[in-house]
Structures are given as structure tokens and as C-alpha cells.
């Protein structure tokens, strides 16, 4: 550092930057944009990795899971605590949407129904209320502080009575927003006995509708009891463990990434992809700085030679250039920090979560940032410093150093940049094609022009008038009242009649118009009575070892009403499973209204009319209404997020690679100026010289392409293997990626090559 202090001349450096403003702008802009994304990605990755680390008892909390799902029966917690002294407490959690009535108006609110141990087990800040008593009674409710201000302003909410689903609940506490983790901040928290699924509590071990968390006593090894816990649950008659299934005690710290996600969860692959891309962008930034710095050696060589001739040592020159690099990195980092704060919202939209650079800054990150800049500056400046300080002053003054620098390292770095860029382009194209394939995939029923409304409460009392009103709308073809639709995934039901061969079905239920409105394809209609028979899909027939002409299934001899073509109720990452469809009367409980509309009319107008008509029959209670294909699109939210993120970051990589090639072309053409002049003197045309110059750069792109193809193919083959239905990668994908990179490289170097080819050879020889 002392050596740098004596060797570094800020005046000379600033004068150089001022003389070469274009170089300075490209260098600082490229570095700042690169570091901006590195900062944003680092903030996002740090936030994801810190999820649920705030719980004081986090190392003792486990979620009890079945090997195929994470739902549990309500009574399981009490049974396990009574049997195993290692369990200190348990908590059941249910996430529900309820209707809050304020005067004559209604609003939908997110409510967590939990056991009274919730605030004891999990670290959630209570601003008002005693954590031991806020959920002691069934008529108590704890309200979020921000939501309380929305309802009551600055008035204290304590003791206020809220009308929630026609229940009168009294506010007993106020809680702050949840820290980041698997729980999203609800508006209200109340007793589990206020759940919509109260019948599940009463059904003992036959209904799995809850998340069950177990907290071990200190120094107790609860995971060692996993097999005993499984056996205990099996003995209670829980059908999920009636055969040889595994029980899982998933640690709290692992649920966010590795568990089933009911409310919030991370995607480990996505975080890894972003981290790798962020590292690549950082490497690109360093490569660009090196290439841009080396490209300016012709401008700085005489300055450095004069300093050597005036007594400066090679070591001092080396330290001076490294110091300049650190200073430029520091300036770029400050700009990047400002850019990242301005881009927080846009980046948060891209990764589908809030990202705050300000919140990530603390004394430790500040110290780490300074160390990062110091190391980055040293790494970025070392190669240019070694190259420039190695020039002999006499060679610089004679001009012979140009012929001695072959720029082998810079060429390797450019090839590496284009290797990564082409790989990223190829991966992005494959992801986009696969997502388009999944969104257009035939789901086995009519998803197009099918509207699904999720309605509150029981609309059966007004179903006939609602159906009649909907059928009067122009463009409406059919209406069905349903519960558990394909786009919502259905409801799981495992047949316990044969413990040696249990079959897990997804159940769907609707009125007599349900099959027609959904557009299911009927393979066979047995003409069985609908109040006794059950419709099965083809996979359910195969799972039972039957043929499509069978009349009954299960050891309980249930009549088969008919067989439906396999339809999808899960995304393409999962195979089609057995399904049962019940056709029930019009007087049963419903959760959904399905409306099939004609595409001949204006779908948007028809949708608006359908929504307005349903609203008239809900007594002002909130409901949701969507096209089914949009609900299916939501299945692929993670894939869309990954493709968008990789796509945008690929654009950044292309920009940075183009800047690097621009720097390389600047230096390369300057190095060959006298050669170009001599070629033109001996008869070469401008076109021949232009082809010669461009061919050199295209060779580097071609080498990058050859290296990128097998890597891209391998990575995308592994990514596509997660889907039961997938595209073929095909050579066109690689051709498109290579041509895109070649076109960008050509546009980058064409102008400079053209100018060099058209230059007067006399001017080049004089230099």
C-alpha cells in the first residue's frame, strides 16, 4: 500500500480518463452495470439463504410429513406428544381465506388458524398481547399491525370485535410482519377451532388438512424416533400409513427449500442458477476491464515509458496501475450500488420477491464490500499492470512493442465470454420452447374458453337463479357447479379397502353438467346411476388392474359410471395419476362455478358479464374469477421466473461480451494498422481487408460455439428430464444461438473494421 501511495499519480490518471472519454464511459458503464446485477443477485441469494433463520427454537422444530405430502391429521400432534416424551409441544397450522364484514361491506382476508402454542413455538413479534394467552380462547383473534391501521387508524385494536365468516371474534393481540420464511404474513391469526374444516378435526385421523409442527425438547434426538413415530401413527388407523410408507421429520431450516410449499418457499435450483449467472457476470466484468485496459496500452505506453526513463521502477509502475484499477472499481461499485437501489423493484418483479439492497447493508456487509472491491481491483489490474510494466522504454519509443504483443490471453478471454454467452442463449431458447410447449399442451379437457369462479360459502340456495342468469348471457354455452376442479388439483383420497394395494386418487366433484362443461372426453359410458356410480380416468382403471369395460372397482365393489380419457390435474413435471369424478345433485355444497363460453363472441366482454352476474349472487362477498388457462399458467410460475431471469441476464451477458469484443477489436485493429496499409499498397481491396479483419473475430466466436454446444446440450437435457412431456432440443436451437452470437459480434466489430479497411495507408505508415 505504501508503494502504491508513492507510485500512484492521480493527476496523470484523471488526465488520461478525460482524454479518452469513450474508453472511460464504456469501462465504467460496463463495470457498473455488471456490478449492479452482482449486488442484486447477492442480496437476493442472501435473503433466500436466511429464510427461517430467525426462529429461536428453529433447530428444535420439525414438520411431520408423509413421503408424498406434508398434510397431517389434527389429532396426530396430541397422539405423538402423549406417546413420546421427546416432544415438548406441537402446533397445527391451516392457511385460509375468510370473509371479514365491516358494516355492509365485505372483504377477503388471509387468516392463519393455529394451535395456542403458535407464538411459543415460532419467533413472531407480538406488539401487543401476551403470547401465552392471545390464543387461549376460541373467540380470540390476533391482528397484523399494518392491517389494524387500515381498519382502525391510530385507534388501538385491542378488544375490538371482528365479524369473520359470521363469527364474532375479539382482538386479543397485535403482531408485526413475519420475517422472511415459509410463513407469509397473514392479516389475522385465530384458533384452529375457527377453521373452515372443523369437520376434519372431528374426524380424528381420517382427514389430512393441516401442517403439523413438532418441537423437540432440548438435547433430545427426535429424528432418531422417526420409525417409532411412523409405527405409532399407523397404529392409530391413519390410512396414509396403512401400508409401508415413510414418515419424515423435516427440520425447520430445510423446509423453505426442500419441503412442500403451502405458502412460501424457495427454489434451490433457481437460486443456484442466479448465483452462477451472477458469478459469470462478475467474471465477464473482470475480463472486460482487462481487455479494455490492455486495448489502451498504445495510449499509455509512452506515458509509462517516460516514467521509467525518469527513474520509475517496474514495480512502481505495476503498483500504480493496480491502484488505478482499485480506484476505478471503487467508483464503479458506488455507481452500481446506486443503480441497484434504483432497480430493486424491477429486479424484485423478475425474481418474484422483494429485494432490498438497503436492508442488506450492515457493518459486516460493508466491510465485506470493501474487501471485495480491493480484491476485484487487484485481480482486474494485475494482467494490464504486468503487460504494460513489462514494456522496455526503448521499444515503446521506437514503436516495436506493437509487433511483440500477440494478445493470446485476451483472445482466450473473448472465446470464454462467447462460450458462456452462446450457452446462455441456447439455454434461454430451450426454456422458452419448453414453457410454450407446456402452456399449449393438451390437458385432456377443454381449458380454452372455460371460466372458473371460486365462490365463498354455499351458493346452492341460489344456484338455480344463478345458472339461469348466466345462461342468458350471450356466448355462454354451459354452466356447472363444482367442487375440486382439475385446474385446482382436486382433493386427495386414498382407498383404504386394500392395505396391500392402496391407491391414491384425486377426487373431482360436480353437478350433472360438470363433465360436459369441463370438456372431458368419455371413453366409455356405463349408463350407471349417477348417485351411485363413480367416473374413473384411464389411469385409475390401470391402477386397479381393470379394463375399460369393467363395471365396478375397489374391494368395496363401487359401480363405475364410466371411463374418462386421462386428463391432467398437475403440471408436466408429474405423471397423470388415478382420478375419480363424482357427479352429484344440484343441492350439494360447492366451491366453484364453471362457465363454458363461445370463442365466437368477445371472450373479455363475456368474462366481464359472467363476473358481474356471479357478484350479484354472492351478497357482496368477495370471490375470484379466472380463465382456466391462466390458472394453468400459474402452475409454471417457477419455470417462467427462471426463464425470464436467465433471459434478462443473458441480455446483460451479451452486452458485456459485446463491450469486450469492442475493446479487443480496438486493440487488434490498431496492432495491425501497418499490416493493413502494406496489404493495400500491394493491391488488396477494401473488401478483402474487411473480410480478413472480420474473419479473425468470427473465428473466436466459432471456437466459443464449438465449446458451448455440448455443454448446453448436457445442461438442458438434465433440465428437461424433470418433465414427463418435453421437447426435443434439436440442432436449430444451437444454430439460432450461434447465429445470434455471430450477428452481435459482427455488428460490434464491423464499424471499426470498415473504418480500418477504408483508411489511407499513408496515414498508417506514418504512425
Write a concise synopsis of the structure shown.
With 767 residues, the protein is an alpha+beta fold. It contains 28 helices and 22 strands. Strands 12, 13, 14, 15, 16, 17, 18, 19, 20, 21 and 22 form an eleven-stranded mixed β-sheet that branches.
Give the helix proportion (percent range): 40-55%
Q: What is the number of helical segments per DSSP (H or I, 4+ residues)?
A: 28
Q: How large is the radius of gyration? A: 34 Å
The backbone outline, from C-alpha atoms, is globular
Low-pLDDT regions: 1-7
Q: How much beta, percentage-wise?
A: 15-25%
Mean model confidence by pLDDT: 82
Query: How would a crystallographer describe the biggest sheet?
Result: 11 strands, mixed
Number of strands: 22
Structural classification: alpha+beta
The end-to-end distance, rounded to whole angstroms, is 38 Å
Can you describe what's shown?
By secondary structure, the chain is an alpha+beta fold. The strands form two sheets. Strands 12, 13, 14, 15, 16, 17, 18, 19, 20, 21 and 22 form an eleven-stranded mixed beta sheet that branches. Helix 18 (408-439) runs antiparallel to helix 24 and helix 18 (408-439) crosses helix 27 (731-757). 51% of the residues lie in helices and 17% in strands. Strand 3 (87-102) and strand 4 (105-114) form a beta hairpin.
Amino acid at each position: 500500500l505504501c508503494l502504491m501511495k508513492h507510485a500512484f499519480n492521480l493527476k496523470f490518471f484523471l488526465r488520461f480518463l478525460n482524454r479518452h472519454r469513450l474508453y472511460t464511459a464504456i469501462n465504467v458503464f460496463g463495470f457498473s452495470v455488471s456490478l449492479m446485477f452482482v449486488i442484486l443477485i447477492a442480496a437476493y441469494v442472501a435473503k433466500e439463504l436466511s429464510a427461517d433463520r430467525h426462529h429461536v427454537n428453529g433447530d428444535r422444530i420439525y414438520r411431520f410429513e408423509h413421503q408424498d405430502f406434508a398434510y397431517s391429521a389434527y389429532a396426530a400432534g396430541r397422539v405423538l406428544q402423549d406417546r413420546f416424551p421427546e416432544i415438548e409441544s406441537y402446533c397445527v397450522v391451516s392457511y385460509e381465506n375468510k370473509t371479514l364484514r365491516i358494516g355492509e361491506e365485505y372483504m377477503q382476508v388471509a387468516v392463519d388458524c393455529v394451535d395456542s402454542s403458535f407464538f411459543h413455538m415460532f419467533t413472531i413479534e407480538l406488539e401487543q398481547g401476551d403470547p401465552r394467552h392471545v390464543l387461549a380462547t376460541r373467540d380470540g383473534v390476533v391482528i397484523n399491525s399494518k392491517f389494524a391501521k387500515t381498519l382502525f387508524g391510530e385507534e388501538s385494536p385491542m378488544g375490538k370485535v371482528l365479524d369473520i365468516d359470521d363469527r364474532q371474534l375479539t382482538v386479543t393481540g397485535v403482531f408485526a410482519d413475519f420475517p422472511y420464511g415459509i410463513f407469509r404474513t397473514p392479516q389475522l391469526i385465530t384458533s384452529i377451532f375457527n377453521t373452515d374444516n372443523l369437520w376434519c378435526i372431528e374426524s380424528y385421523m381420517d382427514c389430512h388438512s393441516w401442517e403439523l409442527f413438532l418441537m423437540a425438547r432440548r438435547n433430545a434426538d427426535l429424528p432418531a424416533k422417526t420409525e417409532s413415530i411412523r409405527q405409532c401413527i399407523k397404529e392409530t388407523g391413519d390410512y396414509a400409513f396403512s401400508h409401508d410408507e415413510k414418515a419424515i421429520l423435516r427440520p425447520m431450516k430445510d423446509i423453505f427449500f426442500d419441503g412442500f410449499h403451502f405458502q412460501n418457499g424457495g427454489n434451490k435450483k433457481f437460486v443456484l442458477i442466479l448465483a452462477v449467472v451472477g458469478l459469470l457476470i462478475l467474471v465477464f466484468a473482470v475480463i472486460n476491464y482487462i481487455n479494455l485496459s490492455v486495448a489502451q496500452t498504445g495510449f499509455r505506453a509512452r506515458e509509462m515509458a517516460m516514467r521509467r526513463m525518469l527513474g520509475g521502477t517496474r514495480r512502481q509502475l505495476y503498483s500504480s496501475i493496480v491502484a488505478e484499477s482499485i480506484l476505478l472499481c471503487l467508483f464503479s461499485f458506488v455507481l452500481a450500488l446506486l443503480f441497484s437501489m434504483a432497480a430493486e423493484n424491477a429486479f424484485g418483479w423478475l425474481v418474484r420477491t422483494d429485494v432490498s439492497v438497503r436492508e442488506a447493508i450492515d457493518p459486516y456487509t460493508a466491510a465485506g464490500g470493501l474487501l471485495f472491491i480491493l480484491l476485484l481491483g487487484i485481480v482486474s489490474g494485475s494482467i494490464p499492470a504486468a503487460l504494460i510494466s513489462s514494456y522496455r522504454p526503448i521499444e515503446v519509443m521506437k514503436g516495436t512493442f506493437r509487433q511483440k504483443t500477440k494478445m493470446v490471453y485476451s483472445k482466450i478471454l473473448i472465446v470464454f465470454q462467447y462460450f458462456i454467452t452462446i450457452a446462455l442463449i441456447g439455454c434461454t431458447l430451450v426454456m422458452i420452447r419448453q414453457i410454450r410447449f407446456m402452456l399449449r399442451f393438451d390437458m385432456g379437457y377443454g381449458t380454452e374458453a372455460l371460466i372458473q369462479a371460486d365462490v365463498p360459502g354455499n351458493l346452492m340456495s341460489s344456484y338455480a337463479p344463478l345458472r339461469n342468469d348466466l345462461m342468458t348471457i350471450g356466448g355462454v354455452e354451459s354452466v356447472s357447479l363444482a367442487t375440486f376442479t382439475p385446474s385446482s388439483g382436486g382433493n386427495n383420497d386414498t382407498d383404504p379397502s386394500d392395505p396391500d394395494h392402496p391407491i391414491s386418487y384425486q377426487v373431482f366433484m360436480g353437478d350433472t353438467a360438470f363433465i360436459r362443461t369441463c370438456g372431458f372426453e368419455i371413453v366409455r359410458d356405463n349408463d350407471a346411476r349417477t348417485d351411485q356410480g363413480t367416473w374413473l380416468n384411464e389411469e385409475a382403471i390401470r391402477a386397479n388392474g381393470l379394463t375399460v369395460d369393467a363395471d365396478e372397482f375397489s374391494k368395496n365393489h363401487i359401480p363405475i359410471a364410466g371411463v374418462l380419457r386421462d386428463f391432467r390435474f398437475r403440471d408436466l413435471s408429474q405423471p397423470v395419476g388415478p382420478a375419480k369424478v363424482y357427479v352429484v345433485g344440484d343441492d350439494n355444497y360447492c366451491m366453484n362455478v364453471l362457465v363454458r363460453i363461445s370463442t365466437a363472441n368477445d371472450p373479455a366482454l363475456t368474462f366481464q358479464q359472467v363476473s358481474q352476474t356471479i357478484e350479484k349472487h354472492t351478497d357482496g362477498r368477495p370471490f375470484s374469477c379466472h380463465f382456466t388457462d391462466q390458472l394453468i399458467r400459474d402452475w409454471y410460475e417457477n419455470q417462467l421466473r427462471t426463464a425470464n431471469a436467465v433471459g434478462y441476464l443473458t441480455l446483460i451477458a451479451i452486452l458485456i461480451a459485446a463491450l469486450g469484443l469492442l475493446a479487443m477489436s480496438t486493440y487488434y485493429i490498431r496492432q495491425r494498422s501497418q499490416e493493413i496499409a502494406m496489404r493495400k499498397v500491394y493491391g488488396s481491396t477494401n473488401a478483402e481487408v474487411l473480410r480478413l479483419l472480420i474473419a479473425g473475430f468470427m473465428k473466436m466466436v466459432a471456437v466459443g460455439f464449438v465449446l458451448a454446444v455440448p455443454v448446453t446440450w448436457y445442461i438442458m437435457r438434465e433440465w428437461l428430464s424433470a418433465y414427463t412431456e418435453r421437447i426435443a432440443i434439436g440442432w436449430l436451437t444451437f444454430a439460432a444461438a450461434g447465429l445470434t452470437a455471430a450477428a452481435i459480434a459482427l455488428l460490434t466489430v464491423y464499424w471499426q473494421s470498415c473504418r480500418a479497411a477504408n483508411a489511407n495507408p499513408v496515414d498508417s505508415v506514418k504512425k
